[in-house]
Amino acid sequence: MKILFTGASSFTGYWLVKTLATAGHEIVCPLRGAVENYDGMRKLRVEKLSSLCRLIPHAPFGSENFSNLIRSGGRWDFLCHHATESANYKSPDFDAAAALQNNTQNLRAVLAAMKKVGLRGTILTGSIFENDEGKGDEPLRAFSGYGLSKGLTWQMFRFYCGEAQIPLGKFVIPNPFGPLEEPRFTAYLMKTWREGKTAGVKTPDYLRDNIHVDLLAVAYEHFFNRIAAMNSGEAKINPSQYVETQGEFAQRVAREVRKRLGWECKLELSKQEDFSEPLRRVNTDPVAANFQNWNETKAWDGFAEFYAGPK
User: Which domains, from first to last, does the chain contain?
Assistant: First the structure.
């Protein structure tokens, strides 16, 4: 199928595109800016994407360039909207209304234009950080303004896809980890251990749902096939893997890395004092046993190899 995929330069976006491309789909990926303007880990992901898809610079969702791409691109089978406004996503000053505007700019016109040339379905990426997702402490409120913007984006897509009678899927992402990630939790652990230092875990009591990013991508490709087979309506999946506290997850990572790389992987679990986020929030659909072509041991091997760096 021919897929218009937004948000490909993100950590999860890269892995989703890679898996869809490996499955034989033709993928076109609009980018917000110029290819040469990316830096750091995002630059590396964009460089790797160039062999997997066609990159279109300066074409944020709903913009004039984005609309021109739709009009000039011939037939479109699918829209995978993974792009989202996420800068400073943990900040209390995150502007949910502005993020919603960016996430859904000219949505009705985009869907109409794509349906005119063959659109068969849409998948929107959701987040465990948004309201009313997963399971955990009630009420299931949004973690932040970012989470709020994601929940509002979903409602916009539900409304306009329903109006246009376009099948819609929602793929809810928990806490992915793996190669090519931004410097977040597991990247911090690996950098600290590689330097021979002790890694601190400040929020060991949070119950979260961490998942290998390549397993997440396999689940996405299967969900894509499910939505592509639908004639109408909507569906949702909340893929889940390691449901445990962040302290327990850090210990899991330490065990897996220690036996592969021989690092000490020392940990210090703090007495948690920050409970600004819900104590418990996890996804509801375990997926690790569902896919015979995914191997947990190989996933950990790849994780350790990436962070070990050149030998």
Answer: 2-176+211-240 (3.40.50.720), 178-209+242-284+292-308 (3.90.25)
